[in-house]
């Protein structure tokens, strides 16, 4: 448990704080959820319990559907974004399903709770030419950098775009996960699920260039980590995000999307190049095909815009 989690738990009645921390333990021990995910659940549920306690509800057994609706309604009235309301609704649903299954509550008061409607927005993404320019510039910059940083940063960009892996998956890469013969990476995804993803020749060349200089930053803390920070330890996700933002900003026409934007771009470009949806789903590690389908909408939207601009009878 984090120090912040301890302080938060102490601010709530024991009848609410103890089940909350037990639930967070369940997320880690039984569901293998990441620390980031667990902290998001803890934050959402702490806000709920704090609000309920302020309205006289201090025991799980006393929480009813009207209490949950009232909390969400107050958030909506305060101007909370629909996407955040949707996340809070999801946290409530998961928590109270668990309390019912564990016998902590006789029923699940959130079972019929309706979610907030979130307007569907197509994710912005990089064009193929934009991605090529950014990656080529990063590789060129690495050749003139006297430190290992340029090679590492270029490899980060090439691996994120070339394989479509998540930031956490990139940070968790070990040396044994790189298969040069097959041109693949073995990554550990959400829920500790392992998958193998292809990495093209440019990505593998950039990775080899970085690994050729990795020894200059190695320390006792390096272990088998592929990507290192300047002090020799496994690279931090915040450093990866900073690297991506810095390079995206060098292209005046490219949206500053961060690491997940490279993943979006890779998936969109695969589909535009003729890859089938199931293949893209496997590469990205999506559990549901519906999650992957957003990229078909992006591709279709691009085709529609091109048609409207170019066809004389559009």
Automatic annotation (TrEMBL):
- Entry's Gene Ontology molecular function annotations: DNA binding; tyrosine-based site-specific recombinase activity
**What residue stretches are annotated with the Tyr recombinase domain?**
121-308
Key words, A-Z: Cell cycle, Cell division, Chromosome partition, Cytoplasm, DNA integration, DNA recombination, DNA-binding
Q: Which domain of life is it from?
A: Bacteria
Q: Does the keyword Secreted apply?
A: no
Catalytic site: 166, 190, 260, 263, 286, 295 (o-(3'-phospho-dna)-tyrosine intermediate)
Any Pfam family hit: Phage_int_SAM_1
List the protein's name: Tyrosine recombinase XerC
């Amino acid at each position: 448990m984090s120090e912040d989690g301890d302080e938060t738990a102490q601010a709530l009645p024991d009848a609410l704080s103890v089940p909350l921390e037990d639930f967070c333990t369940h997320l880690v021990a039984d569901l293998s959820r990441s620390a980031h995910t667990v902290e998001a659940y803890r934050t959402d549920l702490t806000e709920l319990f704090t609000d309920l306690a302020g309205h006289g509800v201090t025991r799980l057994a006393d929480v009813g559907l009207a209490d949950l609706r009232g909390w969400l309604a107050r958030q909506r009235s305060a101007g909370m974004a629909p996407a955040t309301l949707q996340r809070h609704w999801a946290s409530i649903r998961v928590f109270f399903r668990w309390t019912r299954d564990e016998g902590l509550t006789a029923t699940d008061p959130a079972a019929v709770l309706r979610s907030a409607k979130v307007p569907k927005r197509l994710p912005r993404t990089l064009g193929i030419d934009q991605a090529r320019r950014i990656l080529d510039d990063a590789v060129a910059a690495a050749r003139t950098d006297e430190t290992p940083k340029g090679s590492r940063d270029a490899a980060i960009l090439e691996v994120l775009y070339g394989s479509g892996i998540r930031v956490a998956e990139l940070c968790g890469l070990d040396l044994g996960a790189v298969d040069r013969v097959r041109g693949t990476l073995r990554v550990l995804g959400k829920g500790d699920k392992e998958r193998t993803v292809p990495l093209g020749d440019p990505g593998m060349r950039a990775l080899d260039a970085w690994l050729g200089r990795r020894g200059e930053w190695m320390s006792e803390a390096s272990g088998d980590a592929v990507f290192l920070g300047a002090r020799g330890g496994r690279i931090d996700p915040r450093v990866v995000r900073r690297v991506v933002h810095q390079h995206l900003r060098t292209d005046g026409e490219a949206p500053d999307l961060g690491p997940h934007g490279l993943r979006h771009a890779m998936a969109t470009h695969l589909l535009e190049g003729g890859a089938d949806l199931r293949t893209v789903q496997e590469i990205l590690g999506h559990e549901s095909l519906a999650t992957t389908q957003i990229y078909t909408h992006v591709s279709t939207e691009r085709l529609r815009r091109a048609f409207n601009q170019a066809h004389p009878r559009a």
